[in-house]
Amino acid sequence: MEDDFRDELDLATVAIGNPSHRFSRPLKIEQAGDSSDGVDSISSLPDDILHRILSFFPTNFAIRTSVLSKRWGHVWIHFVNSWIEFAISHNAEKLSLDFRDARVRDYKFPGFFYTNSSVKQLLISSGPAELIPSCTVSWTSLNLTLHNYDSVKYLDLSKSLYLRRLDIICCNTVREPMKIVAPHIHYLRLRGQCTLLDVSSLTEADVDSSDNYLFLSFSYYKSDSLMLVMVQAMLEKLQNVEKLTLGVDFLRLHGVPLPKLKVKTLTLETMIMRPVVLGIARLVQNSPQVKKITIYTTQFSTVLDKCDSFLELQNLNPNQGWRSIDVVFPTSWDSKVPEPELMVSFIELLLANTITLETLVVRLGSYTDDYRSRFEEQFQIALTLSHNNEVSIVLK
């Protein structure tokens, strides 16, 4: 049994909530009154004793004692710290922190939380608004998942001198993108709304916001829409990376001024639709050093045919958008991949906008024999395009 317990220590879960099994009836909090000599005898007790007293109460009750006075304001923090310390002391690699009380928003993670080198995967539900370590961070790789993290504002990893890889998934309804400072990372995988302030050492990035299904409606219908601004700012920070993967939400680049990218290997996860084709063409034009492009055709897309209204909000000319592209490209697509003829037109568009391209890979996935036989008819056209442009075209 002891061995089974040790085996489970690599995954530690801490829940800060209301364990109802401790009490059969609700507890009532009353303001601590003064004693006959005018001294609050309970509040004057040492922390160790207060911790012992609060250990008999549900966690959310202990947190609520913070309203009694400044003396009680941070007594409850001891319990959270002790749980985290227990997990870290047993070299937990996966740590899940579930904060369920609004009062923990001011909670600051202890120093030993950042100085441990065992944690590789961290999941935080709700909780503190900031992750700003005041000490040197020992993490070398971090997979960070934020659930229901409406309050998150800032992630500062400037003291994470050894952190090289950062994976972030924001599954939330946040109204303000999280700001990230991570000057030492070399690889970034990002799903969700974030603002990159400093990623100066980055060489490879994989970014998309389509995992956040509320993102589209928020960006389209707010008068101060964030989508174009966020995409432009993101690409500015990613202009020096050599390997770049962009999801479909980052390819709606209608009329947005783009920086010159130094990318050499470009991967695009998209559907071949009119709202994004122009963005892809402009992206390729602004990648003068690109050697290899890989296209993953995706089944699901949040792209809608609302580009004109979105551009008008940004005082941009819709005629500079997808209308300038031949009507061969549809405004929406319901099937898993484009028709063969459509894919060939897309390949032609890419080749017409690149000079240094050496390899073009189109990944179609696995489909019916009928579909593949139809595509084989177009494959010879692709070979001709490859020969004429001195580009190796690979269809998978």
From TrEMBL:
Q: Which CDD domains match?
A: F-box_AtFBL13-like (cd22160)
Query: One Pfam family for this entry, by name?
Result: F-box
User: Origin, by domain of life?
Assistant: Eukaryota
Transmembrane spans:
none
Enumerate the spans annotated as F-box domain.
39-86
PANTHER family given for it?
OS06G0556300 PROTEIN (PTHR34223:SF51), OS11G0201299 PROTEIN (PTHR34223)
Name used for this protein in its record: F-box domain-containing protein
